């Protein structure tokens, strides 16, 4: 059975919204990430944020969450550790396993990065008209619901 003309228009509108939303979110994410990286590349920042949110974690857990190979995660974690941003801990359940946790310096860096990015967005939002700001505020619950449906972790 073919869809009715109304369904077809609704499906087209939904596809258009999805494409525009994907592009807008990707662009905004890229712009916000570029505001402050604290000397980290994207992979390092993402790993540090995941370890902060879910740690302490084993290297295999970090690799799984980042969808990266074990050798790649080992290199990233080694760089983060050499910068004093994470520390290795023994797994209390299995002393042969090494866990990684965010160090005090790593937590401070993440806080500075997040604050800097929030301040950037605050400045941009102040440029909006009251009407546009109201529309954005009204859309936030929907955007937040869409963002929580998936379990991927955001970068710092």
Please tell me about this protein's structure.
The protein has 156 residues and is mostly helical. The protein has one domain (36-148): Orthogonal Bundle (Arc Repressor Mutant, subunit A). The chain is built from six helices and three strands. The chain has helices at residues 5-35, 42-54, 59-66, 70-82, 104-126, 130-148, and strands at residues 57-58, 86-91, 94-102. A three-stranded antiparallel beta sheet has the order 1-3-2. α2 packs across α4 (70-82) and α3 crosses α4. The longest helix has 31 residues, at 5-35. The chain is globular.
Any key phrases for this structure?
mainly alpha; 3 strands
> Looking at this structure, what is the CATH superfamily?
Winged helix-like DNA-binding domain superfamily/Winged helix DNA-binding domain
Shape: globular
CATH architecture: Orthogonal Bundle
CATH topology: Arc Repressor Mutant, subunit A
Annotation field: number of helices: 6
Instruction: Extract low-pLDDT stretches.
Output: none
Brief overview:
Helix 2 crosses helix 4 (70-82) and helix 3 (59-66) crosses helix 4.
Write the layout of secondary structure elements.
Blueprint: H1 5-35, H2 42-54, E1 57-58, H3 59-66, H4 70-82, E2 86-91, E3 94-102, H5 104-126, H6 130-148
Antiparallel strand pairs: 1-3, 2-3
Helix pairs in contact: 2-4, 3-4
């Amino acid at each position: 059975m073919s869809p009715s003309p109304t369904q077809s228009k609704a499906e087209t509108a939904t596809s258009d919204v999805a494409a525009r939303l994907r592009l807008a979110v990707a662009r905004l994410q890229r712009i916000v990430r570029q505001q402050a990286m604290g000397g980290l590349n994207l992979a390092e920042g993402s790993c540090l944020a995941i370890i902060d949110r879910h740690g302490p974690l084993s290297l295999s857990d970090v690799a799984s969450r980042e969808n990266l190979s074990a050798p790649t995660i080992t290199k990233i974690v080694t760089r983060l550790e050499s910068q004093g941003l994470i520390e290795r801990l023994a797994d209390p359940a299995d002393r042969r396993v090494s866990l990684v946790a965010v160090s005090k310096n790593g937590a401070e860096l993440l806080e500075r990065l997040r604050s800097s990015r929030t301040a950037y967005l605050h400045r941009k939002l102040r440029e909006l008209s009251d009407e546009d700001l109201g529309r954005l505020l009204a859309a936030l619950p929907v955007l937040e619901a869409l963002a929580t449906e998936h379990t991927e972790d955001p970068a710092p």
